[in-house]
Amino acid sequence: MEQAGVERVLKAGARRSVRLERAANGELSVVKRFAGSSLAGATLARLRAQREHRMLSELRERGLSVPRALALEHVDGGW
What we know:
Strand content: 25-35%
Structural class: alpha+beta
Helix content: 25-40%
């Protein structure tokens, strides 16, 4: 079995990163992380993450071919 963790950073910016990560069971997932360095920035990051998660879930329910939103979590100061 492959080792869990970040396989590759696909895109990185000041407030958002997109990574390919491998779970402990070997499955690959694309993880988008939103972060903010101030209270206002952290609040905006949370709102962006919630909005994207909700939008992907709604579009998938309507039958569109979009990535399945697996989870919305607050981890290490980011969403």
